[in-house]
Amino acid sequence: MIFYNFSGGMESAAMIYLERNRVAERGMIRWADTGKQFPEMAESIRQVEGILGLPVVVVSPRITFDQFLFEAGGMIRKGTNDCSRRMKRANLMAHMKTFERPYEVNLGFNADETERADAFVARNERDWLHWRFPLIEAGVTRGDTRTLCEEAGFAIICEMYDKMGRFDCFMCGNQTPRQALKVAEHYPELAAEWMDSEQRKGHSFMRVRPDVQGSTRTLRRV
After folding, report:
1. Taken in order 196, 197, 199, 200, is the CA torsion positive or negative?
2. What is the pLDDT of residues 11-34, one digit of tens each?
3. Can you tell me whether residue 138 is helix, strand or coil?
4. Domain ranges of the chain
5. Domain 2-166 class, CATH top level
6. pLDDT digits (tens, 9 = 90+) for 35-49
7. Distance (Å, whole) CA 48 – CA 153
């Protein structure tokens, strides 16, 4: 079985557009739902499906995000990948194993990430599991992915990158402080949810802290 892991972001979108004919013939596009994406994600997925004429399989989490964070010892910290590992990769692996071996999984690493891809393969390649990187094979750099997404007509993805600089979970601990402040600017209700989660967890998720100015709650850099 051949899988294409779609994060919702620009690089994986460029990957599935580049390989759309191969996907149509032999592959499956998958998206792992963490429950903490920006509200535009659902509409973006529908747009991608409509443009490509291909379904995006939504892989539901085995536990909710709140269960991960507050009951199962989940961690959100700058420089860690616990959330991605447990709420995305683990669920995608469990989904994969409902199909017969062997497997091929395609990831959206770009041509500037060959060392990262090599290290990933060294850790994760198996006789029954092959990892492939179509953007690297095609020499597509990170900058090229924007061009491909514009060519494809993935307008929502491009708009979100213009507005937020990214398009994944809104309270990711690995975003930049500038990106975190944009969450507060554009999505005050999500910023409030983020700060409430930090308070409940007992620590901040990155180097920003909540502040109160009048009736407006914002995120400020430490």
Report:
1. positive
2. 999 999 999 999 999 999 999 999
3. coil
4. 2-166, 170-222
5. alpha beta
6. 999 999 999 999 999
7. 8
